[in-house]
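User: Fold this; tokens only.

Assistant: Input:
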Amino acid sequence: MIDKKTSKQSSEIALKSFFLGPRAENSPLVKKLVDFIFTHWFEWRKKNYPNDGVAITEKDQIAPEFQQKTEEMKLHLIDLLSRLQKEVPSFSPRYVGHMVSEISVPALLGHIVTLLHNPNNITGEVARVSIDIEREAICDLMVMLGYDPENGRGHFTSGGTVANFEGLIRARSRLAKWMAAGIFTENISRSKKSILEYAHQGWDRFENLTKYIATDELKQCHFLHYSPVEVAKKIDRIFNIDYKGPVVLAPQSKHYSWPKGIIMLGLGAESFWPIELDKYGMLSISDLKKKTELALKENRPVLSIVSVAGTTELGDFDPIHEVADYIENLEKSQDLHIWHHVDGAYGGFFRTLAKHKNSPIKEHTFNAIDAIPRSNSITVDPHKLGYVPYASGAFVCKDFKEYYVAPFDAPYLRFDYNSNKMPQTLEGSRSAGGAIACWLTSKCVGFNSSGYGTILEKTIKQRQELEVLLKASHINIRIAPHSQTNILCFCIAEDGEEISKTNAATEKVYEAFSQESVPFYVSMTSLKWDLYKEFLDDYVKDWDAKVDASELTLIRMTLMNPFFDSKDTKVNYQDEFIRELLKAI
């Protein structure tokens, strides 16, 4: 019979091989592997066209001007290394600030290999191998996220912002197609259907409508091919309404890229309709329904509903399962098909968590995690909880039909249209670094419960343990409630005091941890009352606060370093952090 305790210890020891370690403990291993990479690369270069001869001779290499330039290069390199040693040590367990931490060894090696070969994943002409590796990495991510790789499509981006934009343009492209078919059909048939029936008609009805419509005729009604002003005029005339355009619904806790993307796509800032948050700081289902019904009442198509898996401030999950239930109910009851995008830039990797009786994740969070595959598209950032170097985001779409958007040609490039990818990306030239680093981590660490799931469960437990210790250490430490994952927020407040004084005390603590040389690094955020009203009202009741400010300032800690709770180091990071915090208070 296998001893569970021994099995767990063996698993944690195995995972230690995937990180360099706070004191570069695995440096001999990494040095050996990096040397192997460079040796392999040198030999590969030598084997290519061996009869060409050398371009740099030994005589060149010993020439004074050659030696001078190499010495200059060395001096500038020393200067660069010296300057970067003053950079924030985000690899350390003492860094608990933003959503960045130690890079995994497989990700580091994958990134280095890619830099050496320098492929550009815009076309197979300059990336014949890395495009295939990207496709494999996307398939691994889709399996992790619950999509079928046979039917889905995706690609890597420079980060979550661009991946969210990718979701917007595909939701917009689908809407434009469906509306164009409806505008043309209604102009001929006069069946007195609403613009919403066409805007949300679904693929089956769309394909039936467009069987006998010429492409050029359809383009005249397509707001991405023809003047959107003229298309709006057609809608006004044909449907006898005052058409104001589509809307996007996303929670108040959304990432800033959503309103930014809406403006950049020319939809207008007014087209972003924020969904209120409930007392848990999550998307309010009742307000989602209210806003959706209002949009439909005003003949405004819902371009997309966004739910968040791992919010920027608190790291929490919206009730994605309830959002999916509502959208699916609209489809069944009213035959309205609405695009659902899950912004899992931070939380997508929590799909690797295992369900068991001692899990630190609560049932309602697992319900949200399990519902992620019920969406149309997903954003995920391997450079966050994937422990991959910047920049590595990814956009995945459940249905290849919905991934496809009208391509843009470049006469000097040959695109593989059969792959349904190039030139489907917003970005033109794209590094393969994030894709290959992600691919290698998938193969080595594993996008599963015994790989990433074990690491991430450990970080959630670290947050829970630290919460308990913080509460016991000082009466004025007020932990933000309802945390679901590995982000911990708190403020410093005395009973009955004004929020302005609480903010000042919390900012004083942040300043203490923000000097050039500090024992720990934290981040700071502010929750605005008009966005988080129910959550904040409920939170500050704990110390009978007097609300005299428009926001509450919080210390924010992202506990994603796998060694923060290490029992092998000379220091207990949890205890030392509390000692330093009490000094600051």
